[in-house]
Automatic annotation (TrEMBL):
Residues 164-354 form the Amidohydrolase-related domain. Signal peptide: none annotated. This is Amidohydrolase. It comes from Virgisporangium aurantiacum. InterPro entries: Amidohydro-rel, Metal-dep_hydrolase_composite, Metal_Hydrolase, Metallo-dep_Hydrolase.
Amino acid sequence: MGDIERGRVVPALRIRGFALPDGEPVDLYADGDRWTTDPVAGADLVAEGWLLPGLVDAHTHPGAEEPGQPLDHDVLRADLRAHVVAGVALIRAPGLAGDPPDWFGYLDDGPRAVHAGPWIAQHGQFFDGWGRRPALADVPAVAAAQAARTGWAKVVIDWSVGDDVMPVDVLREAVARVHAVGGRLAVHSQHPDGGAVAVEAGLDSLEHGMCLDPQLLPRMAERGIALTPTLSVITGSLERARSAPDSPRKQWYVAGAGAHGPLTAAAVEAGVTVLAGTDSRPHGGIVGEIRALVAAGVSPHEAIAAASWTARSFLGLPGLAPGAPADAVVYDADPRTDLGQLDKPRAVIVRGKRLHHR
């Protein structure tokens, strides 16, 4: 048997090995876009080894080469392909340079994708040319309409040093309106007051979270608020910030970025759902984010979870089990004991198709 694709039969795939997170032996078949343990006649054994249910980049903005540029479909395709080569089977784009084409998330050689449409920001904040800037009173309705279309909305509640933070009553109403339509709300915050407002409002995921008061972490865990720290891009800019002339912005960034690794490790320790996201170009850098998490003190198991099974569960997809979507990335050895394995996946399977291999 097999799947029908563009008039030809695509052979069913088979993988076997040790499935994370538990490391139990499995023998899985993908006949179409679902895993099964029932043998499929003629299935092609494409890889054996250590199996992850596909990597996830939970904070990426493909499709534009520079802030403020419009969405470019050719750039979008190339960015999505770069994710797959890195082992990413699922992305979440909490903000795009424009509404994506219908094939976004269904590209033959690209990952699955969920998105929040264009960013929603306050007047005078965020990158020129990107996002929408409704009146504050209209933010809840705009966010709800977006979430009704795509499942997610993204609100930028603070920006530069000295900017106003979005009022908590506005954000709380946005959360309520988004949840009422069955959606979820992501919030950008990199300032202490913004983090406090975000947690108080009860959003679904806090993006970046730089300068967040660590005392809020238990409440985030209790309320199920995820943190996507985008650690590698924030700490990667730290040395450049330290060499800049003294200014309020430098003081803010150096202090926040310098504490961001310990904050992230503390979030994991507190039971917060931590998601791995890159927020940078070139795309396909999720392994660097996993390494940044480990360098900050997160265990390799939890760091890989943030970029795989934990992130997939948060986004509504199960792992390597019968009936689950047929995504996987296969390595020769356990990546938890050898992070170098993450640089060289043996096979990347998305929607039951082998999209990359060596």
